[in-house]
Specification:
Blueprint lengths: L11 H27 L2 H8 L3 H7 L3 H29 L3 H13 L2 H13 L3 H15 L1 H5 L2 H8 L1 H20 L5 H15 L9
Helix pairs in contact: 1-2, 1-4, 1-6, 4-5, 4-6, 4-7, 5-10, 6-7, 10-11
């Protein structure tokens, strides 16, 4: 007869952390699926599988919950970018690889959620202040985390301004092509990238 070790019960802090994670993930899902106006605290709590009381305990207002969720997603995206840095620094075309990484970020859930908040923030000063604080973090996280010659190159004002312009192009593309098929959006990005790439001087590694 074999015996198994008793399953260790989670601590209150572990349970609270798990509840917060579910609420934050559910908030992002709702922002993407229903937009900011359709993201209600009741809908979030239902999707997260928690009670309204638990939701209010951790995040008293919708604004608290949405902003915490955005910070949560930004942290995840920055970590994903950090994980890609070794591959990025091994490439022969650091500018091309950086542009592609930034494009993937803008095509992902973070930017979709940010767009929803941008629209809502136009008439909500409190939300506008927080969105303005968070939005730049992820877009320039990759260049700022690089080291050595690559970091020096991307720190050059000409190169950095080129990246900002490229991100403006990416944002315009994403926002204006919601209705198109993914292949059509990618085709437009390839065309835009071809025009953007000559703006950047070659990097001699």
């Amino acid at each position: 007869m074999t015996s198994t070790a008793p399953r260790q019960r989670r601590t209150q802090e572990e349970r609270s952390t798990a509840t917060r994670e579910r609420l934050l993930d559910a908030t992002i899902d709702c922002l993407i699926e229903f937009g900011y106006a359709g993201t209600t605290v009741a809908r979030i709590a239902d999707r997260a599988g928690v009670t309204r009381g638990a939701q209010v305990h951790h995040y008293p207002t919708k604004a608290d919950l949405v902003l915490a969720a955005l910070r949560h997603l930004v942290a995840k995206q920055v970590q994903a970018s950090v994980d890609e840095l070794p591959r990025l620094q091994r490439t022969n075309d650091i500018v091309g690889a950086t542009l592609e990484m930034l494009w993937r970020i803008h095509r992902g859930p973070l930017f979709a959620a940010i767009v929803e908040l941008w629209v809502a923030a136009r008439t909500d000063p409190e939300l506008a202040a927080h969105v303005g604080e968070l939005e730049p973090i992820v877009t320039m996280a990759v260049p700022d985390l690089l080291q050595g010659r690559v970091a020096e190159y991307l720190a050059d004002p000409v190169v950095r301004n080129g990246l900002y312009l490229a991100m403006d192009v990416m944002r315009g593309l994403v926002v204006s092509t919601w209705h198109l098929e993914p292949a059509q959006v990618e085709a437009r990005w390839r065309r835009a990238k071809k025009q953007l790439r000559p703006m950047f001087p070659d990097l001699d590694l």
